[in-house]
TrEMBL record:
Membrane topology label: Multi-pass membrane protein
Domain of life: Bacteria
Pfam family, one: Sulfate_transp
Keyword Transmembrane helix: yes
Sequence ranges assigned to domain SLC26A/SulP transporter in this UniProt record: 15-390
Main location: membrane
UniProt keywords, alphabetically: Membrane, Transmembrane, Transmembrane helix
Naturally occurring in which organism (per UniProt): Pontibacter saemangeumensis
Membrane-crossing residue ranges in chain numbering: 20-37, 43-60, 88-108, 115-135, 168-192, 204-226, 265-287, 308-326, 338-356, 363-379, 399-427
Taxonomic classification: Bacteria, Pseudomonadati, Bacteroidota, Cytophagia, Cytophagales
Subcellular location: Membrane
PANTHER family, alphabetized: SULFATE TRANSPORTER (PTHR11814)
Protein name from the UniProt record: SulP family inorganic anion transporter
Coiled-coil segments: none
């Protein structure tokens, strides 16, 4: 795996990494809480996982820009896992076992799987995540959504879907939340202006931090002077307030070893390990494509890091984690240069639990929705769709199918659909390029020379058979395998079959440098 040759100088980029870590924290905190809520797990469990992802996995990972934590794509698995195992404590044991399995996958070098996903599918995933962020945050931006902040699926628990929720939101706008959202969005857009970015002092202040501070101040003004505009508690961050060490021990939950004999435990653990690993590999591959420095992540090291992270999270009472594309893309958009930003986000998550929970609980969700709206737009800019379209239908169709499939189902189902379409075009490309075809006239006969390529696999069988079937009558055909290192048995059989029956069309066949096989041997 290609790695940067020089050891990163983490101190050199603190001016960019610390503000970026703060921005990621503002996005990660409500997502951690929302995913815990949707998973049927204790609220603190998602934050614990986010802390472990920042403080431990960030340093173990080979990725400089990905951020790990609880993932919306795992909510259904966590919810069903807790229910089938009978308790959250038993489920924590499954999380630890999943981590051990991921560690094993890393040592078995299974990380190479991520490299087999076409770039059109990866870009489609990023564009779809951007669209979903925009669509899902509009109701929070308007102050009208009671669903959890990190929800990503098209169909929702309350019976609505992504689009009907937006329609409902416009009929139930909370004016105070909307004003705060608009002001926050305006600050973020202003702070993205080149003039601000070029100012030595102003560029050090994260736009998201400024938006959050203004949102808290604006809501305080509403509470004291215009109570009817004050944002209701259900639309504020809702972090458990822990007072002292005793309060922390009361909130933490620990695994129960009694479930070790339950066969369902191993099914749940295996499911978590496979789904979390796949989502992680796709996320780091997407982040590598976005990285302006074009660094490559060692995917086997990433699986090991995620394995250790899930083992620690499970032991401390956290839900499972993955490398998460929403947080990672926010990290990139905020200007992060190294893994220090992910570590900083972990520090802020820890501080939010132990020291500043009261302050954090004053943040309106509409301000955080504004941050995600900006991140979403950067992921799904119109220019991306135009550039993919210009690459031709073989790139655009898998891309747009992936976008639509993720938008109307969920991340993993959508990626599988996109991958199936992408593989179809790969097979189609293989189908038509396993040989070089040259035709020349010689006296009364047409001479056709077919030079086989370096590697001819069973995927090329259909193309070769079709070509041989359509050769003109009365021709002389030379099939030359001089350049071939490997010719699949299926293809050898097809060539032998053609040679055996060619006389029926008065075709003379000359086979050079191609191994002869008996057709009888093949059955």
């Amino acid at each position: 795996m290609k790695q940067t040759s020089n050891k990163p100088n983490y101190l050199a980029h603190l001016g960019k990494d610390i503000p970026a870590g703060l921005v990621v924290f503002f996005v990660a905190l409500p997502l951690c809480l929302g995913i815990s809520l949707a998973s049927g797990a204790p609220l603190l469990s998602g934050v614990i996982t986010g802390i472990v992802g920042g403080l431990i996995v960030a340093w173990l990972s080979g990725s400089q820009l990905s951020v790990s934590g609880p993932a919306a794509g795992l909510t259904v698995i966590v919810l069903n896992g807790i229910e089938s195992l009978g308790s959250f404590e038993a489920f924590l044991l499954a999380v630890v076992l999943a981590g051990i399995l991921q560690l094993g996958l890393g040592f078995m070098k299974a990380g190479v799987i991520g490299l087999y996903f076409p770039s059109s599918v990866i870009r489609g995933m990023l564009a779809a995540i951007g669209l979903i962020l925009i669509l899902k945050q509009i109701p929070h931006f308007l102050g009208a959504d009671e669903d959890f902040f990190g929800e990503m699926n098209f169909f929702q628990a309350d019976g609505r879907n992504t689009f009907s929720e937006i329609g409902y939101a416009f009929s139930s706008i909370q004016l105070g939340a909307l004003i705060i959202g608009v002001v926050s969005l305006a600050i973020l857009l202003l702070w993205d202006n080149p003039r601000i970015k070029s100012n030595k002092f102003l560029k050090l202040i994260p736009g998201a931090l400024l938006a959050v501070i203004f949102s808290i101040a604006l809501n305080a003004i509403f509470i004291n002077f215009v109570p009817e505009l004050a944002v209701v508690s259900s639309h504020l961050v809702n972090l458990p307030v822990i007072e002292g060490f005793e309060g922390l021990t009361n909130e933490l939950r620990f695994l129960n070893l009694e479930a070790i004999t339950n066969p369902t435990l191993y099914v749940v653990a295996f499911t978590i390990a496979i789904v979390a690993s796949l989502e992680t590999l796709l996320s780091v591959e997407a982040v590598d494509k976005l990285d302006p420095h074009k660094r490559r992540t060692n995917t086997n090291r990433e699986l090991k890091a995620q394995g250790v992270g899930n083992m620690v999270a499970g032991l401390l009472g956290g839900i499972p984690m993955t490398a998460v594309i929403v947080r990672s893309s926010t990290n990139l958009a905020a200007g992060a240069q190294s893994k220090v930003s992910a570590f900083v986000h972990g520090i802020f998550l820890a501080l939010s639990v132990f020291l500043i929970a009261d302050f954090m609980n004053q943040i309106p969700l509409s301000a955080l929705a504004a941050v995600l709206l900006v991140v979403g737009y950067k992921l799904t800019k119109p220019a991306l769709y135009i550039s993919q379209f210009k690459l031709g239908h073989e790139q655009f169709i898998p891309f747009i199918v992936t976008v639509l499939a993720i938008l109307f189902t969920d991340l993993l189902v959508g990626i599988c659909v996109g991958l199936a379409v992408g593989v179809f075009y790969i097979l189609k490309a293989n189908y038509r390029s396993p040989y070089f075809y040259h035709k020349e006239e010689y006296k009364d006969k047409e001479i056709i020379r077919i030079r086989l390529s370096e590697h001819v696999s069973f995927l090329n069988k259909a193309s070769i058979i079709l070509t041989l079937d359509h050769l003109p009558h009365n021709s002389h055909v030379i099939i030359d395998g001089e350049n071939s290192e490997h010719i699949d048995y299926d293809v050898l059989e097809a060539i032998q079959e053609f040679k055996r029956t060619a006389h029926e069309r008065n075709i003379t066949v000359e086979v050079l440098n191609v191994e002869e096989v008996s057709i009888m041997e093949m059955h």
